Amino acid sequence: MSLPAELEPERAQVLEFWKIKRGSKGETAWKLLTGELLKIQQKYGDAVLREQLALGINGKWQSITLRNFEQFLPKGNTAAQAVKPRKKTEEEIRAEEEAAHQQRIREMGLI
């Protein structure tokens, strides 16, 4: 199971979370985890991603998802207000589109 390049700087934390997490640890669970971590990173940045990984490790969470992060984000909290989604660059958008294209090609068995 490979780690997306965008998550490489957090490799140690991702693998630590994977090691102690509860629940399924199959390929589907890995893809779900890395996909959700990418969503958090892309929408809120590296600091929030690292925070969620640390909380997940310490709390022995079963998963880390963007939905759960946003659901439990404190309302009216100054820390929550400081967390603002960042705008993607053109390069990031193109890279995401290319990655999605490559994934579709793999799923069709063309690569």
List its salient traits.
single chain; 111 residues; mainly alpha; 64% helix; 0% strand
Protein architecture, described:
This protein is mainly α and 111 residues long. It has a domain at 10-86. It is built from six helices and no strands. Helix 1 (11-20) packs parallel to helix 3 and helix 2 crosses helix 3 (46-59). It is globular. The mean pLDDT is 87.
Short overview:
With 111 residues, the chain is an all-alpha fold. The protein has helices at 11-20, 27-44, 46-59, 66-71, 78-82, 90-107. The protein has a domain at 10-86.
Note the total helix count. 6
Radius of gyration: 15 Å
Ranges where pLDDT stays below 50 over 5 or more residues in a row are none
**Helical proportion?**
55-70%
Largest sheet: none
- Counting helices, strands and paired strands, the structural category is mainly alpha
Beta fraction of the residues?
under 5%
Name the overall outline: globular
N/C terminus separation: 17 Å
Average pLDDT score: 87
- Oligomeric state of the chains in view: single chain
Please provide the ordered H/E string of secondary-structure elements.
HHHHHH
Can you count the beta strands? 0
Topology, pairings included?
Layout: H1 11-20, H2 27-44, H3 46-59, H4 66-71, H5 78-82, H6 90-107
Helix pairs in contact: 1-3, 2-3
